[in-house]
Amino acid sequence: MNHFHVFFKKELRESVRTHRLLIILTIFFMFGVMNPLTAKLTPDLLAKFLPEGMIIELPVPSSLDSWAQFFKNVTQMGLIVVLLVFSGILANEITQGTLINLLTKGLSREAVITAKYAAMLALWSMGVLVSSLVTWGYTVYLFPDGKSHNLVFAVFCLWLFGAFLLAQLVFSTTLVKSSYGSLIITGAVVVFLNILQVFPGVQPWNPLVLATHNMELIGQNLEPSFFARPIGLAFLGCCLLVVLAVVVFRKKQI
């Protein structure tokens, strides 16, 4: 446990030194500002650029549009940024030799994997928290309509899916030597989960719904109980992938 604590603090300091923390917080803060602003301005911009004489009835923007932007931006761009930032978190240290020195001095391999995953989770959590709070505050100011429900739970579902992908990334980094390989494996898992969405019987169990059905939850078109099975599988997946990463890393020649 002491090894974990020491290496976890080292990972956080490394995130500051390499600007990982700054990159994630800056991008997610920008998302938080852009989400409600985009929802507010999009109808006006569309109306402005329509051909002269053409009239289209556009719906009045609401808080639902703002949160739709939030989930779209964090899912499509935010997660990609986070995965790119962390893709070389293990391969780079092995290549540079810094991790070898620590391991020869008694650092346990279990502490390496668990501390790295915990640090990744910490930065991902900070990014989601910043973006969701800024989006919420700006949305309440621009759209005080009370149409959005289950916000905390919907954001939690997205956070858990991100935690699942990070666990997959950690496991992937123990299988290959390059950061690109770990990204390819993680991307393949996402593609596979998308393919599973085609099968109606599998969909209620698919962790992917944690990142794709958030607006149905906020609009009260789905009950929170619908997400119980995907949440359970995503949580078990996180635990299993981290354990597998530890097992593979123990046997990995560095």
List keywords for this structure.
254 residues; 11 helices
State the gist of this model.
With 254 residues, the protein is mainly α. Helices cover 76% and strands 0% of the residues. Helix 3 (63-86) packs antiparallel against helix 6, helix 6 packs antiparallel against helix 11 (228-251) and helix 7 runs parallel beside helix 11 (228-251).
Strand content: under 5%
Q: Class by helix and strand content?
A: mainly alpha
The tally of helices reads: 11
**Count of domain modules:** 1
Order of SSEs, N→C? HHHHHHHHHHH
Largest β sheet strand count, sense and barrel closure: none
Low-confidence stretches: none
- Gross morphology: elongated
Distance from first to last alpha carbon: 23 Å
Overview of this protein structure:
Helix 1 (2-17) packs across helix 6 (109-142), helix 2 runs parallel beside helix 6 (109-142) and helix 6 (109-142) runs antiparallel to helix 7. It is built from 11 helices and no strands. The chain is mainly α and 254 residues long. It has one domain (2-251).
Present the secondary structure layout:
Elements: H1 2-17, H2 20-49, H3 63-86, H4 91-96, H5 98-104, H6 109-142, H7 151-175, H8 179-196, H9 209-212, H10 214-218, H11 228-251
Helix pairs in contact: 1-6, 2-3, 2-6, 3-6, 3-7, 6-7, 6-11, 7-8, 7-11
